[in-house]
Amino acid sequence: xxxxxxxxxxxxxxxxxxxxxxxxxxxxxxxxxxxxxxxxxxxxxxxxxxxxxxxxxxxxxxxxxxxxxxxxxxxxxxxxxxxxxxxxxxxxxxxxxxxxxxxxxxxxxxxxxxxxxxxxxxxxxxxxxxxxxxxxxxxxxxxxxxxxxxxxxxxxxxxxxxxxxxxxxxxxxxxxxxxxxxxxxxxxxxxxxxxxxxxxxxxxxxxxxxxxxxxxxxxxxxxxxxxxx
Length: 229
Ligand SMILES: [Zn+2]
Description:
Layout: E1 2-3, E2 10-11, H1 44-76, H2 89-117, H3 122-187, H4 202-213, H5 220-227
Antiparallel strand pairs: 1-2
The chain binds zinc ion (ZN).
C-alpha cells in the first residue's frame, strides 16, 4: 500500500499522481499489484494485437503527461496580483492648477475693469466671482476624478478576478488530467511486469510490432527482449 508523501491519501499501486493533491508519486515506490497480472499471448498475431493496443495506450498516456507538464510549467510561474489601486487625487490634481489659473484670470480681468471704471468697490464682486469659478472647477474635477478612479479600479479588480479564475481552472483541469493518467496507467498495469519502464512508449511498441511482423521476434516477450539490443 502506498500513501501520498504530501497529503497522506491512500494511493493505488500504480498511481503516478496523488488523486487528492496532485503530488507526483515516486516511481520506485510504485509496485505492481499482483491481482492485475496478465498472461502474455504466445502466438504472433495475438502478440501484435497486444503491442498495437499498448501503442495506443502509451500514446495517450504520453499525451496526457505532456499536457500535465505544460500546465505545471505555467502554474509554476508566479501570477502577479499586486492589489494596486488608483487614488482619486491622481486625476484630481490638474484641477488644482485649472482652479488657480481661473482665479488669477478673473482677478486680472476684474482688476483691469475696476481700474478702468474707477470703481474700487467692484473688487469684492471680482473676488467672489474668482472664488466661485475656482470652487466650481474643483467640484467638477473632483467628481470627474472620482468616476475615473472607480472605473479604472473596477477594471483592475476584474482583471485580478480573471487571473485568479484562470489559475483555478488550470489547476482543476490538471488534476482531472492526473486522475485520467492514473486510471490509464492502472488499466494497463498488468503489462508492466513484461514491459520495463523505459520501453513504455509508442515508439517502442511500434518497434515491437515491426519485429513481430518481420519475423525477427516470435512473440511479445521475445520482441521486448530484442528492444534491449
Ligand atoms: Zn496527496
